[in-house]
């Protein structure tokens, strides 16, 4: 991954390359951005630039032995730690980054700007709560105790340190503050508030902006999305590449239809069918459960924009727009705001491992009240 592979982010790239040129490298960096943004891609490109054998003023060469290994994520001095959980074939206690490294490398080749849901679905852990365990802190110490393979730096990238178990976070404080020689930590976060202050205080924070609409549109067009649809998705997704692709799928496939049917069932007050819906929701798996709620929140937000007649902000088209326009005919602003609140509250609870079936049934009953 070269800086030139990532559109935009001129200021961030200049700050990173200048730090190397001026020999002002911090031993621990925090790249703070949004889900589906460029913070992980920038971290990998930064590591590649640091270890490049023939760098230019602004980028790695992309062709030396070190760059070729970084491109495949196989450089012996490039280390990754990331959230994991058990699968049907891997017990939770054995689910550490090293056990899933083959899947992780394949994932990065497919998802340059990933989110946690994409990763969980990719390796089969979508039904589990993901975390970075204390065992990973031991793996960090072991990996960094080895000598570098070349003349460059050991680069330890921790993706989503907000998923560090408290025992793991405390266990890496010493090595984060005093790493072995020629070692660079790059922590890549999407939620600084969820990280221990003792971790944050040991890092140099780089705030990574979102993709602009124009940059995101260009990325989508590169992936084969038609320009008119790419413009619509870029407006809708707030700089989140993964969200843009998910919305494209949801508008045509299951999530959109699922949400419509659920809302209609709530509106009809079909309590027997709502019990069946709760059973169906339980079987979706945690990541899909969250996805349905997130999609509903997005649809209610757009509905409120539609009611306000702010056409320049209205970002729906096709079947989504048809559904929302019909939705607005029977509901006023107060009711839609209440639905929005209920969905947000339920998303908060599902992220904290409540019983999904009971939560969804309770949510559906509250939606029945809100819709009448």
TrEMBL record:
Entries under Pfam families matching the protein: DNA_pol3_delta2 (PF13177)
UniProt GO BP: DNA-templated DNA replication
Domain of life: Bacteria
Full protein name: DNA polymerase III subunit delta
């Amino acid at each position: 991954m070269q800086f030139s592979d990532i559109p935009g982010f001129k200021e961030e790239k200049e700050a990173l390359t200048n730090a190397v040129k001026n020999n002002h490298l911090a031993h621990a960096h925090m790249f703070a951005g949004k889900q589906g943004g460029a913070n992980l891609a920038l971290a990998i490109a930064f590591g590649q630039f640091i270890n490049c054998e023939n760098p230019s003023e602004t980028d790695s060469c992309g062709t030396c032995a070190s760059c070729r290994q970084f491109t495949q994520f196989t450089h012996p001095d490039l280390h990754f730690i990331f959230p994991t959980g058990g699968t049907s074939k891997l017990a939770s206690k054995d689910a550490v980054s090293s056990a899933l490294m083959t899947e992780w490398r394949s994932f990065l080749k497919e998802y340059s700007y990933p989110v946690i849901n994409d990763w969980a679905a990719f390796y089969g852990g979508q039904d589990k709560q993901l975390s970075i365990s204390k065992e990973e802190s031991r793996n960090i110490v072991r990996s960094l105790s080895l000598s570098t393979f070349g003349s460059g730096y050991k680069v330890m990238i921790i993706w989503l340190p907000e998923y560090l178990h408290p025992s793991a976070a405390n266990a890496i404080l010493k090595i984060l503050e005093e790493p072995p020689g020629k070692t660079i930590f790059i922590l890549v976060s999407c939620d600084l508030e969820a990280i221990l202050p003792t971790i944050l205080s040991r890092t140099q924070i780089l705030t990574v902006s979102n993709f602009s609409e124009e940059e995101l549109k260009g990325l989508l067009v590169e992936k084969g999305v038609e320009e008119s649809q790419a413009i619509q998705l870029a407006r809708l997704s707030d700089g989140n590449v993964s969200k843009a692709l998910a919305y494209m799928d949801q508008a045509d496939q299951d999530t959109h239809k699922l949400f419509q049917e659920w809302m209609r069932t709530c509106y009809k007050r079909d309590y027997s069918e709502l019990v069946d819906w709760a059973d169906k929701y339980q079987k979706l798996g945690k990541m899909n459960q969250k996805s349905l709620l997130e999609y509903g929140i997005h649809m209610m937000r757009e509905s409120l924009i539609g009611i306000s007649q702010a056409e320049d902000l209205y970002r729906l088209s096709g079947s989504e727009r048809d559904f929302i326009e019909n939705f607005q005919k029977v509901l006023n602003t107060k009711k839609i705001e209440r639905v929005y609140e209920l969905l947000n509250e339920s998303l908060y609870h599902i992220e904290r491992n409540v019983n999904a079936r009971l939560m969804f049934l309770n949510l559906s009953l509250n939606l029945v009240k809100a819709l009448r």
